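Assess the record.
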Amino acid sequence: MKKIGWVLIAALVYASALPTRAAAKQWVEGTDYVVLNPAQQTTVSKGKVEVMEVFSYACPYCNGFQPVIHRLEHSLPRNAQWVFLPASFIPTEDWPMFQQAYFTAQALGIASRTHQAIYDAVWKTGELGIVDPATDRLKHPLPSLEDAARVYAHLTGVSAQKFLATARSFGVGTEMREADAQIEAMHVPGTPCLIVDGKYRIRSESMASPDDVVALVKYLVAKASRHP
């Protein structure tokens, strides 16, 4: 599964320290973004424009993209609302487990306050790391759902037993299947991937800086607001 390369992520993060460009860019359908057909149903309330990131905690590129996501979260107009959709593209790197853990946290009402902490548990503290730092190879075994339950319990106080029971529920299983189907319907080429209003998928490879990402998302939010 294609993912945004480290070079692009590094360029976006580095460019975040540079001054904002004065000239406004003209965004081109098919080059900078694609129109999804059919459009996907959104989950936000009426009057809101959904801005979605398709991601995985196990994706190093998503982790590297977090500074841009944080910048977006603080710069979108009031009628825009963030949602996150976890992907399961790479079972050999534990993506389905992290997808299940995210939907479990969402069902328990703890997803938003643990989002960055789970990235940190994978890529900083190593509590849920998928790579052995000594060998730079994938861990065997990879972190389990039980491991994730213990980390969420430490972060929130929700017991590991309750987390696991929720994770294995029919509702979470349904969410996982629906997420996979939606990601396929949106022709998501890899992660991270941004979708606006269920209609517009940003072509990440055309973005040269965080300024580009922020400006294009704002442009598409305005476009969706004019044509609900």
User: Anything to note?
Assistant: Residues 29-222 form a domain with the Glutaredoxin fold (CATH 3.40.30.10). Residues 210-226 form the longest helix (17 residues). The chain has a mean pLDDT of 90.
